Amino acid sequence: MRQLIDDYIHGSEHPDLVVYRRDFDEKFDLEYWERSIRDMCALGGFYNKRILEVGCGFGWDAVGLSHLGGNEVVAIDILPSMIDGFSECLASARAKGHVLNIEPKVADICSLDEEESFDGIYSSEALEHVHDLTAMFERCYDLLKPGGTLLLRNDSNRFNSSFRESTFEMWKERDTSWEHAEWLKTEIRPVEHANAKPYGAMRQEIIDETGIAFTPDQQAKLVAATAGMIRPEIVKAAETYRDRGTLPTPPKFAWCRNPETGEYAERLLDPFELRDMLKQAGFRNVSLRHGFTKFPFRLANGIAFRPINEFLFDRRGLFLLRADK
């Protein structure tokens, strides 16, 4: 497995991947990653199946799902830069003799058109960025074959105090700091973030384009109050502020959002809300699980008592949702 991963991740010089690879070479825990993929295959019954991965990034998990589970994997991401690097790595690995049944493609899960064509759907560390979770869950239901399984894995959990506070600090930088925007360009993904600006500055530009005259104090209040909104909502909020003098209230756990694309930098998710949303989308056998694998905490997997779940989430933010069609 080590040789496959090394060959794969070093198979492209895409600028965004080069930065990711630095962290991979320094920090990647192969044993933990391989164990987690095996666990996901076991939990979802993902063996020799047709699997859709949502928010695949550069494709590491897709490689694991294909190699360790013998699955055919369709891996989608909304970012072309991710799929470009993914495709180059995949071609390089195949040229070195690795057999990987994977199809990477640029696509939005909310508009993907392959109804009832997948045995399973898998998504890891992508939910916090999706612009419309209700639409995503409804689409996942439609894309699954009858009896298919959805697995969602994420650590963006508002009940984990450490993660919550660090996320709030990141949001402030992403919304206000030009230095942070430059850091995104040079240290994270230079292609994806080539035109990065603070989200607050982007909202200011949208407000300026309305042509409505506000005082500097009014502008500052409106920029702050429209955090989490997209362009049409910001324009409407500016008009309402002009006409009525009232300001919107930003959502506490989801206000760091690109006002042009609608993408969230990192939402703080409520696993209990997500569980209910899956049920509303039509899924059955919906279970909420923790990432604990050792005794005694692993005994709490699937437990329905919310206070116990909140306590465990504060110890570790990772959560898993499993649901059947």
Task: Outline the structure in words.
- The structure is a single chain.
- This protein has 325 residues and is of the alpha/beta class.
- 48% of the residues lie in helices and 14% in strands.
- The chain has 13 helices and seven strands.
- A seven-stranded mixed beta sheet has the order 3-2-1-4-5-7-6, with helices on both faces.
- The longest helix has 16 residues, at 80-95.
- The mean pLDDT is 91.
Brief synopsis:
This protein is an alpha/beta fold. The chain has helices at 2-9, 15-27, 30-44, 60-69, 80-95, 133-143, 161-176, 178-188, 199-209, 216-225, 231-244, 271-280, 306-315, and strands at 50-54, 72-77, 102-106, 118-124, 144-154, 284-290, 319-324.
List the helices and strands and how they pair.
Elements: H1 2-9, H2 15-27, H3 30-44, E1 50-54, H4 60-69, E2 72-77, H5 80-95, E3 102-106, E4 118-124, H6 133-143, E5 144-154, H7 161-176, H8 178-188, H9 199-209, H10 216-225, H11 231-244, H12 271-280, E6 284-290, H13 306-315, E7 319-324
Parallel strand pairs: 1-2, 1-4, 2-3, 4-5
Antiparallel strand pairs: 5-7, 6-7
List the main descriptive attributes of the protein structure presented here.
325 residues; alpha/beta; Rossmann fold; 2 domains; 7-stranded mixed beta sheet; 7 strands; 48% helix; globular
Give the helix proportion (percent range): 40-55%
**Could you name the ranges where pLDDT drops below 50 across 5 or more consecutive residues?**
none
Give the DSSP E fraction (strand runs of 2 or more residues). Answer: 5-15%
Mean pLDDT: 91
The order of strands across the largest sheet is: 3-2-1-4-5-7-6
Distance between the termini: 32 Å
Largest sheet: 7 strands, mixed
The CATH class of the largest domain is identified as: Alpha Beta
Would you tell me the structural class of the helices and strands?
A: alpha/beta
Tell me the CATH superfamily of the largest domain.
Answer: Vaccinia Virus protein VP39
Helices and strands, in order, run as HHHEHEHEEHEHHHHHHEHE
Shape: globular
The tally of helices reads 13
Radius of gyration computed on alpha carbons: 21 Å
Q: How many strands in all?
A: 7
CATH topology assignment of the largest domain? Rossmann fold
The CATH architecture of the largest domain can be given as: 3-Layer(aba) Sandwich
How many structural domains does the protein architecture include?
Answer: 2
